[in-house]
Amino acid sequence: MAKTKTTFFCQNCGTQFAKWAGQCSACKEWNTLVEEVVQKEVKVAWKSDSPSSKRVAKPLRINEINTEKELRLDSFNQEFNRVLGGGIVPGSLILLGGEPGVGKSTLILQIALRLPYKTLYVSGEESQKQIKMRADRINSDNETCFILTETKTQNIFKQIEATEPDIVVIDSIQTLHTDYIESAAGSISQIRECTAELIKFAKETNTPVILIGHITKDGTIAGPKILEHMVDTVLQFEGDRNYVYRILRSLKNRFGSTAELGIYEMHGSGLREVNNPSEILISKNDEGLSGTAIASTIEGMRPLMIEIQALVSTAVYGTPQRSTTGYNAKRLNMLLAVLEKRAGFKLGAKDVFLNITGGISVDDPAIDLAVVAAILSSNEDISIEKGICFAAEVGLAGEIRPVQRIDQRILEAEKLGFTTIYASKNNKITLQKTKIRVVLIGKIEDLANQVFS
Q: I need a surface site. Which of 69, 144, 201, 400 has the fewest CB within 10 A?
């Protein structure tokens, strides 16, 4: 068997080198040289004599292309379907990333055990007994899910040819290796070549493939950035390990919106879908506590009611501290400056701590008004009346700015039993009959006068 010929290319400027070096001599960048395949053997990964592999693409006029809605495979997981845009598209490649231990393998195995289609779950990290133990914990009985422990792509394609699955799961892409690349599993060349083989298989056989990927310490998916460009969908599974809630986000989706969000709750028996996340993100404390405010936010197409907690105290260490959890610290500093300049609250010599409960992170500017209300509540030590929520952005001039989809936010607040919602007077509200009282304000001073007077 002929040896594969490889060389090294700089990922920054494209200069070719015969051997690896730490620094590119052309562009002077460090650690940009990666091994590339120049010549490799002709390989057969699966049935090369199938009609689909011999099909030749022909150009079509744009008005001749069939635009009928493509059928999707139901994953029998409502949150997973929502994030994907309605289900799994045949022939697509889905890449799922997340921190170690967040529940990536549990989520995909749980979905695989519920599918009525023939599924091949390929694991390069765990043995078949380990996967069986997790499946018993999930309490799912399935006769269409096949478990394979293998890391070589040539052997995987042989088993795919033998079982002919409807869906293939790879856990994880960093553990695979192919004989046609002489480098270790997990290297840039191996990840790219293995993914290319799986893409070719998926497109020619119309079989969806789900890849599970590791992430680096920076939170990005391990491997070359081109990996995310090659696949059709990139999902991020995130959550604080100290909380039971997990969030599934779409970072890239060729077949749907990237604005959707799926929420799960981790239990000993697996992940439970959360259909109404607002109820779990708001504490059930009946006592009036200062420094707490409820904000109406929107993640993707879904409205959420979240609880914001603030603590304002006198700085005892000289330099005031500003600490946030789940919120942008720079935006908190901006809001504190607005409160001091426009509303006259002296917060420059005080510590301010801000927390969004539930372990989630929110960047919706519509929660600005709730953040300000929580800070003022803690500073004045006056609790906000139960049943009040907020949905507005705060500008640098202290004005209350309108936010998008205010009607949807109001309806969500009304559904959860809130009696009053504060919004911008510049919002165009089209709702006619609502039980909730909508209070429209224009300046940050109005909030202080009406809520804390």
A: 69
User: How many Cα atoms occupy the beta-carbon half-sphere of 383 within 13 Å?
Assistant: 9
The tokens for 61 are 């006029």
One-letter amino acid for residue 333 of the chain: N
Q: Would you state the pLDDT for residue 267?
A: 85
Structure tokens at 230: 């090659």
pLDDT given for residue 294 in this prediction: 93
- Within the chain, what is the greatest distance between any pair of CA atoms? 84
DSSP state of 385: P
3-state SS, residue 88: strand
Number of H helices, E strands in the chain: 11, 21
Residue with tokens 């779950």: 121
pLDDT digits (tens, 9 = 90+) for 228-245: 889 999 999 987 666 778
8 Å CB contact between 261 and 249:
yes
Q: Coil, strand or helix: which one is 273?
A: strand
> Which segments of 53-117 does DSSP mark as H helices, in order?
78-84, 104-114
- How confident is residue 14, by pLDDT bands cut at 50, 70 and 90? low
pTM of the model: 0.74
Rounded distance between C-alpha atoms, residue 342 and residue 376, angstroms: 14
Per the structure block, which two tokens stand in for 351? 């510590």
Q: Which helix (H) or strand (E) holds 336?
A: helix 329-342
Neighbours of 395 (CB within 10 A): 17
Q: Are the C-beta atoms of 262 and 83 separated by less than 8 Å?
A: yes
Q: What is the pLDDT of residues 285-330, one digit of tens each?
A: 666 789 999 999 988 778 889 999 999 998 877 788 899 998 999 9
- CA–CA gap between residue 269 and residue 216 (Å, rounded): 28
Q: What is the pLDDT of residue 183?
A: 74
**pLDDT, tens digit, for every residue of 196-230?**
999 999 999 999 999 999 887 767 777 677 788 89
What contacts 425, CB < 8 A, 6 or more positions away? 400, 440, 441, 442
Backbone angles phi, psi at 140, to 5 degrees: -125, 130
Helix (H, G, I), strand (E, B) or coil at 120: strand
264, 299 in Cβ contact below 8 A?
no
Please identify which residue in the block is written with the tokens 């510049």: 426
d(CA 75, CA 109): 11
Distance CA 51, CA 65 (A): 21
pLDDT of residue 169 exceeding 80, the answer is: yes
